[in-house]
Write a structure and sequence with these properties.
Six copies of one chain form a homohexamer.
Chain A (H helix, E strand, L loop, with lengths): L3 E2 L5 E6 L13 H20 L2 E7 L2 E2 L9 E11 L3 E12 L4 E15 L11 E2 L3 H20 L9 H9 L1
Chain lengths: 171, 171, 171, 171, 171, 171
Amino acid sequence: MQLKKVKESLVVMTELVLPNDTNLLGNLMGGRLMYWMDIASALSAMKHCGSQVVTASVDNISFENAIRRGHVVTIQAQVTRAFNTSMEVHLKVWAEDPIQHFKCQSNEAFFTFVALDPNGKPRQVPPSEPETAEETELYEGAVRRRQIRLILGGKMKPEDAQELKSFFVKS
Amino acid sequence: MQLKKVKESLVVMTELVLPNDTNLLGNLMGGRLMYWMDIASALSAMKHCGSQVVTASVDNISFENAIRRGHVVTIQAQVTRAFNTSMEVHLKVWAEDPIQHFKCQSNEAFFTFVALDPNGKPRQVPPSEPETAEETELYEGAVRRRQIRLILGGKMKPEDAQELKSFFVKS
Amino acid sequence: MQLKKVKESLVVMTELVLPNDTNLLGNLMGGRLMYWMDIASALSAMKHCGSQVVTASVDNISFENAIRRGHVVTIQAQVTRAFNTSMEVHLKVWAEDPIQHFKCQSNEAFFTFVALDPNGKPRQVPPSEPETAEETELYEGAVRRRQIRLILGGKMKPEDAQELKSFFVKS
Amino acid sequence: MQLKKVKESLVVMTELVLPNDTNLLGNLMGGRLMYWMDIASALSAMKHCGSQVVTASVDNISFENAIRRGHVVTIQAQVTRAFNTSMEVHLKVWAEDPIQHFKCQSNEAFFTFVALDPNGKPRQVPPSEPETAEETELYEGAVRRRQIRLILGGKMKPEDAQELKSFFVKS
Amino acid sequence: MQLKKVKESLVVMTELVLPNDTNLLGNLMGGRLMYWMDIASALSAMKHCGSQVVTASVDNISFENAIRRGHVVTIQAQVTRAFNTSMEVHLKVWAEDPIQHFKCQSNEAFFTFVALDPNGKPRQVPPSEPETAEETELYEGAVRRRQIRLILGGKMKPEDAQELKSFFVKS
Amino acid sequence: MQLKKVKESLVVMTELVLPNDTNLLGNLMGGRLMYWMDIASALSAMKHCGSQVVTASVDNISFENAIRRGHVVTIQAQVTRAFNTSMEVHLKVWAEDPIQHFKCQSNEAFFTFVALDPNGKPRQVPPSEPETAEETELYEGAVRRRQIRLILGGKMKPEDAQELKSFFVKS
């Protein structure tokens, strides 16, 4: 399969926070934001592999700043690295008050997707090629994040995660 | 503040997977499931603290089995432990084919919420009391999961997470 | 067909009242509540019969207390009695202000469903077995409620509804 | 308060059955239809009384014919009679296959609404005046239907419902 | 194909403006109104031709008066003229404050649809027959509006639009 | 008020076509697309003027290619020119089959918005500055398109639209 540049998988999504997306205090509910993040990152993964995909995992997400009704949410999703049949996607989320022109980054996250053939079975994806410094850093960190997922999912023993182990012991 | 039993925060939610919740292969989209999980766990946290809450973080979630259009999703959410102004909620998710009576656990997750006063500022929550063996195990593990969140959120250095460190080195 | 216990058909659904579910006064619209009640009771009927179902009728519902935006609606649905190809489902609805911890029963209702085979034709359902005193009372009242439905639907003459007639004349 | 003609409260609503309104067999879910019926009849009641209203009760509804995805649902709602602070609304529902030009009446129902002042308290509504023979028949039957509702809601003893009693004993 | 009277294609739709249909000022968003207008006029076109249709074009729409949350929108759609495989539909939109009984016409528009056979290819539609003076005027104006569409869509040169040209030069 | 570059108003929106967005043939309904276009262009106008906006008019839109369920819709919206209290926004719409990597431009449109102050009254907007050749062409064409709108809206006589008249007579 032919190498694909990660930048070709870039997806930008813009959503307006409507009343039904908010709780009684007028703040965007976390679940609504994750719904949008899942679609944006799935589209990015589909762009990379050219097939249907299914969400395999979502890494720890923390929600820093309240996003309010009437604010505009912008989500940028881009594949960081392709593995055998899966792809890690990196998301950046900004919220903006369109009246005050005040924009802040509110989230960053990693979603992982598995490519599926028309029968719903996992299929091979093209290898990925980072170009910029930021893309390369994300590409290299992907292995460590993958080990954390495997450990947390009970599919790898912590002592076998060499790269991760050194992260905790030495740093 | 008075101690509250964690079982009082139990919330059970049942949802039918409708066409708009699925992708082209007829599988429930991960983002839709996270939307439901966020509401179920927020309601559980509100039951514990009796005030509005906001999603603070979501731990790593992995999606094991495909859930299909027409299936029934059942979500059980219960507070595991209250901290100062925050609460960790544990979720179990089952999917069931109502025709085949085939039910499987598809997910498990931890969401964290912060209690808010009417002005949107964090407020104290009641301490929590586990009773059963399972509740106690979840209660005790909550500290370690909290250290992971703080490290992943850049708010704690890995070497300061004593409990977590021993988990990776010794185990 | 094998007898099934009615308690196996229990379904619990929890919904948060969002802005779009309410009218200008901030009260939950009756139609939204009936939408949720229909899904909860359909899932209960499907649990009993293991096939697709279609709503056949809804008995008189009265709406006592206003349910407000931000409140939590809990619906419990359970089959009361199976007839030839149909099932009566009993629903209890509670509304709760999660901040005030004030919970009240707001509704009770009976929905009837017909089981369908894959071609959309009615099919036989398993007989049902009540166990508790409450289940038995609902089981026995089901015949009288069925007569009311048949009369109101123009499919039975009032004078032929022996059990119902005595209810109006003697009581 | 000035008398209002019932025909002034006529509301016609047309809805297209979309995928999310249907179950796995492609049939419109009963709860979705009741959601539309509730809005159509609430608008009719608001037209009569010129104030906000709340659904007080829904009479027995039976669902005769399956309505399918892509069909068009037409609902006609009109006040039959105003009482002190409440109004009974009569609904007729048709479903049409727009391709086959096959249209059939699928439902008939009665919804009752209470008029509310801006503080959410019940308020007086104008008396209603039927004109055609059909309107008059519905107007006159409204008292009997109201007695059924009061009995079913536990607010009237069956033996006090004179008009209804004769209906069951004599007919 | 048999001539069809345009009045047979009349569709009336009534919608309540809910919170999620409005912007931060509580006004109905233009896009929501166009969504309803598209469905109402598609249903009208389907009534005329008895087949599936697809939106081909929308003429210039101007939005005069703000429509508010809680208002009732009534849309009347009727075919003005059938061409070979397409139909022009005329829409009138009213908004009403159901409390104040204040109703105003807020929009008028023309949508064009193409009839499709089951394979999604354009198919012939029946010719249309206007009866009233208003219907006849709309029928006759349809040719001129069609020329504007063809010019704006780059499918006709302005100098070839004889009828339209005289409209600009002489009037 | 300070001049603003038109490129600062660029908004990119990405939407996945879900089942409920499509008709029985599986094609995206025109009204759904216009709903998304309205939000994208409103956000662009808000970026330019820093206040709430309301849709004033939509120019003729033609829908060329069918967009299907599962396709990805990308909308680019950018202010072309600011007038006194209004802004014209230009939209380009692409649809893409994410599996086939086949992307085509499906629409182009002009929406006009009026800026509103917190009381809902029109307010002055900053003047706009085009930079690229394409931006300049759109900027210059805006006056002619505005004359068409005024004529079609009955607010200008055709013979007074000098620029437009020459367009029809000479071209």
